[in-house]
Amino acid sequence: MAKAAILMGSKSDFAVVKPAVEVLKKFGVETQVRVISAHRTPDEAHAFAAGAEESGVEVIICAAGKAAHLGGVIAAYTTLPVIGLPVKTDMMGGLDSLLSIVQMPSGIPVATVGVNGGENAGLLALQILALRYPEIGKKLKQFKAQMAAKIAADDAALQNELQGL
Length: 165
What we know:
Elements: E1 3-8, H1 14-26, E2 30-35, H2 42-52, E3 59-64, H3 70-76, E4 82-86, H4 95-102, E5 111-112, H5 118-130, H6 134-163
Helix pairs in contact: 1-5, 2-3, 5-6
């Protein structure tokens, strides 16, 4: 079974992480969720990253705000794919978080989704896992077909409404 880990620098980030948890669980992916800080628990961050692959984790999502170093620290200690999830902040609306995550040094890539983009972080993790698990790929295709059908229905409803104007 596919296994993902979601790390957040602070428990207060859980509202941003929750959509990622929900989408992964909806697709049947075993999901581990932890609070680990790159700055306040660096030894724990190192130990988690160094042992993640051995524990069966296949993709890691790291949510962090402000300096947002968690994804980079985790990526420094593993070859597993790491997805950065920038968290909105009061100071700069999450731009600080986004730039901290997306500007990794050469050799330490961290894929990055938009600020507070928990659902997209979960979906990107699923797309990565789908390379190894065809059943996840099939579910993703169904998910995208459902999105397309909803848009087509919304457009048809709008066209009907416009005819009455």
